[in-house]
Structures are given as C-alpha cells and as structure tokens.
Design goal:
68% of the residues lie in helices and 1% in strands. By secondary structure, it is mainly alpha-helical. The protein folds into two domains: 6-192, no CATH class; 199-513, no CATH class. Helix 13 (313-331) runs antiparallel to helix 14 and helix 14 (335-351) runs antiparallel to helix 15. The chain is globular and about 80 Å long.
C-alpha cells in the first residue's frame, strides 16, 4: 500500500486512526497496540502476502532470542560469562544478516561467480521483500544491545509495534528501540492530540507534494535518460543527472516527511532523516544532513566498535571509508552501489583531513572554543564549497541511478565527449503530466514547429521550481517554526487536493528497492 494512493488516504488511514484512538479511549492499551500492529501488517502484506511471513518470522526469531537472553541472565545474574554474550551476539547478528544476504545478495553472488568463473550456477530469482534492509537493521540494533545488556527485554506488543509501525516500516527512517518503545509504553500518548494531528497533517502534505508534484514529474526525464544512456549527449547527461538528483531527494525526503507526519498523528515522534542536505558545503556535512538515521546506525554499530577515532588517523580514515562502503552495499546488490559508497567514503575521509574546504558556518575564531573547531587550512568561499559538493553528489548519482557499471561508464563518456546532438529535446518531451497536457496539445495543434522549445521550457520550469523548493525552508522549519494560520491552512488544502488529483500518475518510492 502506498502513501500516495486513494486506498491509503481515504480508507486505511482513517480506519487505523479511528480504531486506535477508540480502543485507547476505553483504556485497552494492549489491544490498541495489537490493533495498530495488525493494521501495519495489513499495510505491509498489501504489497505481497508472501512478505508477511518473512517479517513475522523475523520478529518472532529476534524476540525469542531476546527472551532466551533474558532468561539466561536472570538465572546467571551473578556470573554472566563473556563467551555467552559473544554467542548471543553472533547468533543475532549472523541470523539477521543471513536473512538479508539471502534475499538481497544471494543471486548477486551467484551471478558474479558465473561471470568470473564461468560456473553456470542457476539463479534463484529471489523476490526482494520491501523494506527488509530497514526492519532488519532496526532489529539488529535491538538484539546487539540486548546481547551486551544495554537494552531491556520488552513485552511482545511493544516490540511488535516497534518493528512494524507502518509509517516507517517500508522506507524508514531507521528507528532505534529506545526511540520508539518508550513512546508506545507512554499512556500520555494514547489520547487524540489536535496539535500533533494538525502538525502531522502538514508534514504529510509537504511530503506528499514533494513526491507527487515534483519527484514523479522529474522521474520521467531521469528514467528516460538512464534507459537511453547510449544516445545522450553532454547537455542531456547533465540534465538527466540534475533531474535524478532532485527526484531522489524529493522522493526519499518526501517519504520521510510523510512518515514523520503519520507518526505525529499517532502521537509518535519519528527521528529527523533529512536536514536540507543540498545546502551542505562539504561531502562530510552532506552526510550529516542526508539519511541521518542510516548514518547514525553505522556510526553506532560499525564506526565506534571498529575503533572510531581512538586509534590514530590511519585507522580513523579506514573506519570512515568502511562505513560508507558498507552504506553502498546496504543500498543494493550491484557493483554501482559499491563504487558509489566507496567514492563517498574517500571524499568524507579527505574532508576529515581538513586540508581544503569552506569555513563552517558556526566557526568563530574569536570564541573560546575556536581551538576545538577544526577549520580547513585552505579556506574556500561557502558558495564554492556548496558547488563542489553538489556537483560531486550529482555526478556520483550516475552510478547510483544506473542499472550496471557499463551504463554509468557510458553516461560519463557521453558527458565528457562535449557533444550536442539535440537529444535534450527528446529528454524534455518525455515529461507527460496532466498539468502540461493542455499546453502541449495547443502547441502541437497551432505551432508544432515550436513544440521542442516548449517541452524544453517546461523542463527548465520544473527544474527551477525544484531548485527554489530546495533553497527554501525544509518541512520541519515550515511546520514547527510558525503557527498555523488561515492562509497557511488554505495553502496546504490546495496542495493536498492537487496531489489527490494527480494520483493517476502513482509510482512507488525509490527506496522501496533497498
């Protein structure tokens, strides 16, 4: 079930909200949580009933392991052996990663064995369950800390809600148990809250608008460009990269905004996942603003255990690279993601050397904390830092958006061929939205000789609007910094109606594939 669908907005969401708060009204808190978990599982099974058995099996395994750990530590509270801690830890980590590996990487492994060794192994064509990377990482965080005695053993209904809560189930944010389970236990969050609901609705509409009105439109030229890489010239590669850069942000941050909004409707605070990443002036800063919850997971469960910055510069550099390389692998079973992750690992490691870069916005050389603030030796204007960061990100997405290394190489070859064949008009004409239908129809009938220029103008218009939206305040600033006024409410209502009308162009979210 998609957030941007009639069945979700007009059936699933109202029924879930009404049922949840009605049951809580009669103080049947456990039943209300079971109802919410049941509706979340219906939401997940709507995509494919087969997925339901996978997530339920994963939940039962991890909760059972937590229960076994709890029983063992209760019996041996006075003499807990380190060897048993390691056994519990390895069992939880290997079981969860094995599940993820089988569904996401097993065919990729077989395919590469066939390619490099001419082995002729039969591929299994395994169907990738939606959101498996997200709910696996969430449970990994819990089971790792359980084995280390850093997390308590919760009751089953709270744990089930933590894993299956539908707003973040399929594409994040990646939530940690200590962020979520205490909220499900809090009885003060069981009553309908008008302020939370109104803010949640605003978050949802902003995210829906990003997805439906911008990401889905930008997807048309972006998909056309990646599908026809061999025909692109220099301008069309640049436009394809720019369209995909904007599309990816609006698609993923739009989902995160909707998830945060839906969470607020249920009085549940989900963590921020995006903080205006396209305002960043270094690659390192970019990753402090982009997919924040994934970075937090890797920092906590990979970077710190690997030694963090405690074992010298060389080890720190390796740990940083490792985090981003694993992040690339997390995104998908394709060498393009491996290269993409490694490239970002190298750039962040370079940024950590503070040799060259823009001066941090909060740097104050006259403050008493100036010694603690690392400033690059060669200081660049912030605009130069922003341009360099944005260009690097956009070009790296030529790997991220390609289905193979050969496609991405073709894109780079055509980019640096410095040729112009006019293919950009073909790219622009791929935009086919209801908003532009009348314009395109009128031009094709009255002045067909100008149709190419009109298509190009409309594409440029979409890109300009996208840039202005990115430059403006983000969803959190819009919703939380200023109170809701009549003018603001009317604006949100217009956006919502516009989005609903545009549902004829329904598409899935990019991060459903991860």
């Amino acid at each position: 079930m998609l957030f941007n669908s009639y069945i979700f907005i007009f059936i699933f969401l109202p029924v879930t909200l009404l049922g949840y708060y009605l049951i809580n009204h009669f103080k049947k808190y456990s039943i209300a949580k079971l109802f919410l978990a049941g509706m979340s599982l219906w939401f997940y099974a709507y995509f494919n009933l087969y997925y339901l058995f996978i997530i339920i099996g994963s939940v039962i395994f991890n909760y059972s392991l937590s229960y076994i750990i709890d029983r063992y530590y209760r019996k041996n509270s006075s003499s807990v052996s380190e060897s048993m801690q390691k056994i519990f830890l390895l069992t939880g980590v290997l079981a969860n990663l094995s599940l993820l590996f089988y569904f996401k990487y097993f065919d990729f492994l077989l395919d590469n064995i066939n390619y490099f060794f001419n082995a002729g192994l039969r591929l299994h064509n395994i169907l990738l369950p939606l959101g498996i990377s997200f709910f696996t990482f969430q449970q990994l965080s819990f089971i790792i800390d359980r084995a280390k005695l850093k997390a308590p053993h919760y009751n089953f209904t709270n744990y089930l809600c933590f894993v299956t809560f539908f707003p973040q189930l399929v594409a994040g944010p990646i939530v940690l148990y200590e962020e979520m389970i205490p909220q499900f236990e809090d009885k003060n969050k069981k009553s309908f809250n008008t302020d939370n609901f109104s803010k949640g609705l605003m978050f949802f509409v902003i995210g829906l608008s990003k997805k439906v009105l911008l990401a889905d439109v930008l997807a048309m030229p972006a998909n056309h460009g990646f599908s026809n890489a061999g025909f692109l010239d220099t301008p069309s590669v640049l436009v394809t990269a720019l369209c995909f850069t904007f599309q990816l942000y609006f698609d993923f941050s739009g989902y995160s905004d909707m998830a945060i909004g839906l969470g607020r409707m249920f009085n549940i605070e989900l963590p921020v996942n995006f903080n205006s990443p396209y305002h960043a002036t270094t690659v390192k800063e970019f990753w402090q603003r982009w997919h924040i919850t994934l970075s937090k997971f890797f920092f906590r469960y990979v970077y710190i255990p690997a030694g963090g910055s405690r074992k010298g510069k060389l080890r720190t550099t390796f740990n940083v690279f490792l985090v981003f390389f694993l992040s690339g692998i997390w995104h998908g079973a394709n060498w393009t993601f491996f290269i993409w992750g490694a490239a970002h690992g190298l750039m962040v490691a370079f940024d950590n050397l503070y040799l060259i870069g823009s001066v941090p916005a909060n740097a104050n050389q006259n403050s008493s904390d100036s010694k603690k603030q690392k400033v690059p030796k060669i200081k660049l204007p912030r605009f130069v830092g922003w341009l360099y960061t944005f260009m690097f990100w956009s070009l790296s997405l030529l790997f991220f958006g390609s289905d193979s290394i050969s496609t991405s190489i073709t894109m780079f070859k055509n980019l640096f061929a410095f040729k112009n064949t006019g293919y950009i008009y073909k790219l622009a004409s791929s935009i086919n939205t209801s908003e532009f239908y009348l314009v395109n129809k009128a031009v094709s009938m009255k002045a067909p000789q100008y149709s190419n220029y009109v298509y190009l103008f409309l594409l440029c218009l979409v890109l300009v609007i996208s840039a202005l939206v990115i430059k403006a305040k983000n969803a959190r600033q819009i919703v939380l910094e200023r109170p809701l006024t009549t003018k603001k409410a009317v604006g949100f209502a217009v956006l919502f109606i516009w989005c609903v009308i545009s549902f004829s162009q329904i598409s899935t979210f990019i991060y459903f594939n991860f």
